[in-house]
Amino acid sequence: MTMIGIDPHKPTHTAVAVDGNEHVVDEFQLRASSHQAERLREWADRFAEREWAVESANGLGYLVAQQLVAAGEVVFDVPPVLASRVRVLDTIRSQNNDPNDARSVAIAAMRSDRLARVRPDDHARVLRLLAKRHRDMARLRNKHCTRLHALLLELEPGGISSEITVTKANTLLNGVTVADQVTRHRVMIAHELVDDIARLDVALKASKKRIEAAVVASGTTLTEIVGIGPICAAIIIGYTGDIGRFPTKGHFATYNATAPVDASSGPRPKHRLNQRGNRKLNHAIHIAAIAQLRFDTEGRAYYERKLAEGKSSKDAIRSLKRRISDRVYRHLNIDAQRAATS
User: Fold this and answer.
1) Beta bridge partners of 4
2) How far from chain centre, in Å, is Cα 182?
3) What residue segments make up the domains of the chain, in order of their start?
4) Cα(269)–Cα(300) distance, rounded to whole angstroms?
5) End-to-end CA distance of the chain, in Å?
């Protein structure tokens, strides 16, 4: 079996073929173009039994990975961190250049049995795109609100004390007395920011409707979990991908950073907060946990039991997040089984 590692870049891609003994068989560099997958397969025709490993197949290597999969090739997604560890630990080829990086990608794929296999785009990719677009617009709206708040403080003592809305901002601006050029320009810029916020409000409403329709079309049961609405469901499905790549709920919890990290030293067991993992998944689960605490739910009862056991509020919320992660894992598996039999 020959493993072909690809180090993708914007202008070029570098491919290195490695045999079972980790020896480089051949190298190939090509410019990124509409014929890149075809040229890669022509170069690799000599290797009858081959598999491909693309660094960051959901990032910079997305297009070439999808093109190879569409052509019938077996492709694995290699995280950049895993490939860099292989290169750094190499005693001969530890220099950071494209051929060494591609070789490290291939070796990492050969020695790891838990890499995600690249699949053709599916509904999860649609939900991921929609969730990312919604998040970007929400962040842009918050940025405009922050700038508007700063301007309003220069026009009116205290500005708007509660949440900024288009109606409240217009009411305040219409009551400002323009006595000089500085004030006039402040009011003008503030009106422009209000118009931007109004446009984003309309776009966010439309985005939410698109996400709701897409989540319903996916047939997921995630929305049956208290605290998980369409947007959180889209984030979870989109950033989880194939749930089958997680053998157990513990693996999934480690990926979404709801499982603590073992930091034991000697005979003293110790765990610490996991600052790694997929932060977008972790944020969606955190939103679900906070929502459960607001109502009379099983999650709130669980949280109160943890407090009674002597845990702090933060530790109790972390325990609840792990409990929600396990339930999410169960629902995603149910959805996958249902999709496989339909």
Assistant:
1) 17, 52
2) 43
3) 2-117, 123-214, 224-341
4) 28
5) 35
Q: What's the rounded mean pLDDT across residues 93-110?
A: 86
Cα–Cα distance list, 56 to 135, 222, 279 (Å): 22, 28, 17
At residue 89, does pLDDT exceed 80? no
Strands 12-18 and 271-272: unpaired
d(CA 166, CA 200): 11
Structure tokens that stand for 46 in this block:
């000599």
Q: Is the dihedral of CA 150, 151, 154, 155 positive or negative?
A: negative
Please give the Cα distance from 196 to 209 (Å, whole number): 20
**In the prediction, which pLDDT does 158 show?**
86
pTM score, whole prediction: 0.81
How far is the C-alpha of 104 from the C-alpha of 179, rounded, in Å?
67
Class of domain 2-117: alpha beta
Query: DSSP per residue over 189-200, as a string?
Result: HHHHHHHHHHHH
Q: How far is CA 204 from CA 96, 130, 143, in A?
A: 43, 11, 15
Cα gap 233→147, rounded to integer Å: 31
- The pLDDT of residue 270 is 65
Strands of the sheet containing 12-18, edge to edge, are: 24-31, 12-18, 2-8, 50-55, 75-78, 116-117
- Contacting residues for 52 by C-beta, under 8 A, at least 6 apart: 3, 4, 5, 6, 65, 68, 73, 74, 75, 76
Do the beta carbons of residue 260 and residue 273 sit within 8 Å? yes
User: Which of 308, 310, 305, 334 is CA-nearest to residue 320?
Assistant: 305
Of 147, 139, 254, 291, the C-alpha closest to 207 is: 139
Buried b (16+ CB within 10 A) or exposed e, 192-201: ebbebbbebe
- Please provide the size of the chain in residues: 342
Pairing of strands 24-31, 2-8: unpaired
13: part of which helix (H) or strand (E)? strand 12-18
